[in-house]
TrEMBL record:
<dbReference type="InterPro" id="IPR052937">
    <property type="entry name" value="Inner_membrane_protein"/>
</dbReference>
<dbReference type="GO" id="GO:0005886">
    <property type="term" value="C:plasma membrane"/>
</dbReference>
<feature type="domain" description="Inner membrane component">
    <location>
        <begin position="68"/>
        <end position="118"/>
    </location>
</feature>
<dbReference type="InterPro" id="IPR005185">
    <property type="entry name" value="YccF"/>
</dbReference>
<keyword id="KW-0472">Membrane</keyword>
<dbReference type="InterPro" id="IPR031308">
    <property type="entry name" value="UCP028777"/>
</dbReference>
<feature type="transmembrane region" description="Helical">
    <location>
        <begin position="6"/>
        <end position="39"/>
    </location>
</feature>
<feature type="transmembrane region" description="Helical">
    <location>
        <begin position="60"/>
        <end position="81"/>
    </location>
</feature>
<protein>
    <recommendedName>
        <fullName>Inner membrane component domain-containing protein</fullName>
    </recommendedName>
</protein>
<feature type="transmembrane region" description="Helical">
    <location>
        <begin position="87"/>
        <end position="109"/>
    </location>
</feature>
<keyword id="KW-1133">Transmembrane helix</keyword>
<feature type="domain" description="Inner membrane component">
    <location>
        <begin position="4"/>
        <end position="53"/>
    </location>
</feature>
<dbReference type="Pfam" id="PF03733">
    <property type="entry name" value="YccF"/>
</dbReference>
<keyword id="KW-0812">Transmembrane</keyword>
Length: 136
């Protein structure tokens, strides 16, 4: 079922969202200082292309560095990627099948705004009772 949902997601907006993250990653890698932002964008692009079966959890040991990088991320790419998620959700909600995808796109906004200090893991790797910040 996850594979079917991922395929539907891919065709109803995942490709465009993934392309947005890819462009953000390439632009962020132009400057040496923002290379970590670019690498985070590439990780998020993979998640946005194939989200079902993944979960977002807190990264152990994330501290002030993550908060600083989240600020840099927000200024460089986060706000317009979140806007891209809102536009994709609006477009996806036109069809009945797309409503589920629209909800998933809206659930990804907090992660797209502040990705540092978080990890994307397979849902099967969560410890029993561990609650993800976001999962699809």
């Amino acid at each position: 079922m996850r594979t079917l949902l991922n395929i539907i997601w891919l065709f109803l907006g995942g490709i465009w969202l993934g392309l947005g993250y890819l462009v953000a990653g390439v632009l962020a890698c132009i400057l040496v200082v923002t290379i970590p932002v670019g690498l985070a964008s590439f990780r998020m692009a993979r998640y946005v292309l194939w989200p079902f079966g993944s979960a977002v959890v807190r990264r152990p040991g994330a501290g002030a560095g993550s908060a600083l990088m989240n600020l840099v991320w927000f200024v460089i790419a986060g706000w317009w990627l979140a806007l891209l998620h809102v536009i994709a959700a609006a477009a996806q909600s036109i069809t009945v099948v797309g409503i589920v995808n629209a909800v998933v796109s809206l659930k990804m906004i907090p992660v797209s705004l502040f990705p540092f200090g978080r990890m994307i893991v397979p849902r099967g790797s969560l410890a029993p009772g561990e609650r993800p910040l976001h999962s699809v």
